[in-house]
Design a protein that fits this description.
mainly alpha; 5 strands; elongated; three-stranded antiparallel sheet; 8% strand
Length: 160
């Protein structure tokens, strides 16, 4: 997928510009439809790239929920798993994620909100997330396939 996505760099730049000029509601409907059909065909546990390579923002509530689930004090949880920025934002302190084992999340029911939302194709305003979407194009098979099928659905003229 990496070699293919590198070869598609110019085409993807043109596609981003094409999407930006397209009707927001129509784009969202197409992405929602593709998001309903593509993810069931892909097993995230075959890949786990998101858990191996994403910096996940952790909300205070998520950290509190998971620390309680793990039976740790919040202070011990923060020291073991989180890095805090000067602006108060928290992220996981290592990649791959501490909770990834055999490409599966060991705390799936209590996973962070950012993990639950990824790859965020179910959210409205896809056009506003093009930068992030293409940042993960090579990383996530779901995003990759949604984008490639979206090109066809939008009758985008591909490079030869």
């Amino acid at each position: 997928m990496a070699a293919f996505s590198a070869a598609k760099s110019g085409e993807n730049d043109r596609f981003r510009a094409f999407v930006k000029e397209s009707n927001r509601e129509q784009v969202d409907l197409m992405v929602l439809h593709l998001n309903d059909t593509i993810p069931p065909q892909i097993s995230c546990t075959d890949c786990g790239n998101c858990c191996k390579s994403l910096m996940v923002l952790v909300a205070d509530e998520d950290a509190a929920t998971l620390s309680k689930h793990l039976g740790q004090s919040r202070k011990a949880f923060d020291e073991q798993y989180l890095e805090k920025g000067g602006n108060g934002l928290m992220i996981m302190n290592r990649m791959p994620c501490h909770f990834l084992k055999d490409n599966k999340c060991t705390v799936y029911a209590q996973r962070f909100e950012g993990c639950k939302e990824f790859p965020a194709l179910h959210l409205p305003n896809f056009k506003d997330r093009l930068f992030t979407t293409f940042m993960h194009y090579e990383r996530c098979p779901i995003i990759f396939n949604v984008v490639e099928q979206l090109k066809d659905a939008m009758l985008f003229e591909r490079d030869l």
